[in-house]
C-alpha cells in the first residue's frame, strides 16, 4: 500500500470512507512521511517488540510501526475509525485495532490480552490528541504500567515543560512528574503544515525512557507529589509562603523547621528546587507523619 501519511492518500481515505474529522477528539492527521520516519528512528523498534499506539487515526503512523514491530496495538477512541482501520490493515496480521479510551484502559492488560504476557515490557508511540496530552502522560507514568519507553508527539510547550530544568520558566509539576519516572529527550520540532487539518500550534517529538527505578528515593510518593503541587501552586511566592498557604495542615513555624531540617532556604522559590531537594523535604514531611 502507498504511504498513508501524504496529502493525497489522506484525502483518498477520507473520501473513500466518507469520514468526518472530529476536532473535539484532537484529530490532526500526519501528512508528511519524513516525520513518520523521525518518530520511527526515535522509537528504535526491534522486530520482536510490541508497540501500543494511542490514537491511530487513519493509520499514518501505524503503517510505519507495522513494518518494524512484532505487534502493533492501535488503540482508538473514535468508533467510526475502527472499521476503517480494520479494512486498511486487513492484510497486516501484526496490527490489532482496539476500540478504547487511553484515559481508562489498563495498558498492561491490553497488551497481555492482545499479545500475551511475554510482550511486556512494550513501547508506546503516539501522535497525541492535544486536548488530553498531559492527563494521558500522567496516567501512563503514575499507573505503574510496564512500558520501556514513550515516543510522543505533543504540543511544543508541553514537551519543553517535560524536559525543563530547575529555575527555568517551563519547570513545574509536569517536569518533576516526568523526570521522576523517565529520562526525557527532545527529538525534533514539527510545523503545523504537516498535519491535516492544520493545528494552531507547533509540535515536538519527545522520547521518554522509563528509569529502572525513580530518579530519587521517596518514602511516600503521594506526599512527594502533593508537596510539589503545593510548591508550584503559587509560583511567585517564596517556598515558605507557598507551603504555608497550600492548605497543608502545618503552620508557618512547622514549615520553617522542616525547611531548615532539609537545608533549604525558606526564601527560595519552589521553582528553583531540584528533584533531590523536593525528595529530601518530602521525606522529612513523611517522617512527621502528616
Ligand atoms: N496517529 C494519527 C496520525 O498521526 O495521523 C492520528 C493522530 S491525532 C493527533 C489523535 C488521535 O487520537 C485521533 O485519531 C483521535 O480520535 C484519537 N483519540 C482522541 N482521544 C483519544 C483517547 N482518549 N483514547 C484513544 N484515542 C484517542
From TrEMBL:
Its main location: cytoplasm. The gene is rsmA. This is Ribosomal RNA small subunit methyltransferase A. Gene3D superfamilies: Ribosomal RNA adenine dimethylase-like, domain 2, Vaccinia Virus protein VP39. One of its GO terms (molecular function) is 16S rRNA (adenine(1518)-N(6)/adenine(1519)-N(6))-dimethyltransferase activity. It catalyses: adenosine(1518)/adenosine(1519) in 16S rRNA + 4 S-adenosyl-L-methionine = N(6)-dimethyladenosine(1518)/N(6)-dimethyladenosine(1519) in 16S rRNA + 4 S-adenosyl-L-homocysteine + 4 H(+). Belongs to the class I-like SAM-binding methyltransferase superfamily. rRNA adenine N(6)-methyltransferase family. RsmA subfamily. Its EC number is 2.1.1.182. Specifically dimethylates two adjacent adenosines (A1518 and A1519) in the loop of a conserved hairpin near the 3'-end of 16S rRNA in the 30S particle. May play a critical role in biogenesis of 30S subunits. It comes from Dehalobacterium formicoaceticum. InterPro entries: KsgA/Erm, rRNA_Ade_diMease-like_C, rRNA_Ade_Mease_Trfase_CS, rRNA_Ade_methylase_Trfase_N, rRNA_adenine_dimethylase, SAM-dependent_MTases_sf. Keywords: Cytoplasm, Methyltransferase, RNA-binding, rRNA processing, S-adenosyl-L-methionine, Transferase. It comes from the Bacteria. S-adenosyl-L-methionine binds at residues 28, 30, 55, 76, 101, 127. Residues 35-212 form the Ribosomal RNA adenine methylase transferase N-terminal domain. The keyword Transferase applies. It is found in: Cytoplasm.
